[in-house]
Every structure is written in structure tokens, then in C-alpha cells.
Amino acid sequence: MGTGKTTVGQLLSEKLRRQLIDLDTEIEAESKMTISDIFAAYGEARFRQMETEMTIKVSNNNGMIISTGGGIVLREENMTHLRGNSIIVCLMASPETILNRVSGNDDRPLLKVDNPLQKIHELLDYRRPFYEKADLVINTDDMTPEMVAEEIIAKNQVLRYD
Predict the structure, then answer these.
(1) Are 47 and 38 in contact (CB under 8 A)?
(2) What are the extents of the domains in the chain?
(3) Would you write out the chain's pLDDT as a tens digit for each of its 162 residues?
């Protein structure tokens, strides 16, 4: 969260003329609930199951840009499906940058805690080994979304599978 996935995904979609699929948006449309409402009503475990189901649904499509939430990596099954015909890019940022970028946004169920900065540190520490399995990891702290998109395009030429 707060690393630029949505904005960078939109830029890549425009630059590469490829369809962008935002997994969270698709989950919300299918369930007719916001992610926050899903967490509140059913908990994180149910959301993660819905996330896996949507991953399976969209991962077989070729030529798309798929933007996922940061927790997608927590299930190896998700990564296996995505890796099937995709290059996996992980956008990272420092906890302080993330907090700055998401402050004032009430749509972050995992940050509805007394100390959100501490929670971000905990999430990143736990998820870091999963994130490092991506084909490309980019720290977005000091980059504009445009710079991130251009780096992904440049590196994609080297990583391209097709």
C-alpha cells in the first residue's frame, strides 16, 4: 500500500496500450462491497480467499497489467498463478513514505490501529521475504510514478518472457 501500484499501473496501461486490471477493484465490483467492508464483515481470511479466486480468474489473460494489493504474496498459490504468464514487479517504499502517502485515507483496513507506522513496519518486515521473490523490485521513495513506469518498461525489455 502507498507504493504507487495504482498510479503506476495506470501509466503503464496508457504507455503500453494494455488493459489494466486492479484486483481490489474487481473484488469490490464482484462482491458489491468495499475492501474495508469485506474486512469488517468477514475478516482478512475471507478477503484473502476472494483475492485468490480473483487472481485465478484474471491471471490466465495475456497482455494485461494486473495491479494487486500488497498481501497477494502471502499465498504461494497466488504467485504461482501470476507467474504463469507474467513478470512480477514489486513496488516498495519506506514505512515513513507509505504512511505519508496513505495518511488521511480511511480505506486501509490493516492500518485502522493505534500506531499505523508500527503496523507498516510489521507488515513490511513480515512480507519482505515474499516481496523479494518478485522478478523486479523497485523502491519508489524518491521516484515519481512516471519514473517508476519508465523503469519497469526498460527492465521489462530484459525480463520479457514472450
Answers:
(1) yes
(2) 5-156
(3) 789 998 999 999 999 999 999 999 999 999 999 998 999 999 999 999 999 999 999 998 888 999 998 889 999 999 999 998 888 999 999 999 998 888 876 676 667 777 888 988 999 999 999 999 999 999 999 999 999 999 999 987 655 544
Q: Which residue has the cell 483475492?
A: 51
Topology of the domain covering 5-156 = Rossmann fold (3.40.50)
pTM here is 0.84
Residue 43: count of CB within 10 angstroms of its CB: 11
**Helices (H) and strands (E) in the chain — how many of each?**
7, 4
- The candidate with the shortest Cα–Cα distance to 61, out of 76, 89, 82, is 82
